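Propose amino acids for all 65 sites.
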């Protein structure tokens, strides 16, 4: 499933290499990409927490068929 994860601030691109990084003008970053299962999603969330980054939102994105 594809997810869009919004976090506060700008980050180093190598922290989440498997996800697309979009830097917004409001000083937030969107991480977007496919995660194979919930375990992989939780891994990304754990990494966000370990780095002390503020999580704003997680949005699952329905893929077009």
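Proposal:
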């Amino acid at each position: 499933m594809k997810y869009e994860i919004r976090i506060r601030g700008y980050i180093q691109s190598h922290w989440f290499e498997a996800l697309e990084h979009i830097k917004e003008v409001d000083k937030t970053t969107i991480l977007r990409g496919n995660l194979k299962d919930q375990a992989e999603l939780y891994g990304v969330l754990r990494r966000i927490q370990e780095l002390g980054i503020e999580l704003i939102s997680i949005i699952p994105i329905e893929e077009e068929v």
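The longest strand covers residues 2-8. The chain has one domain: 2-61.
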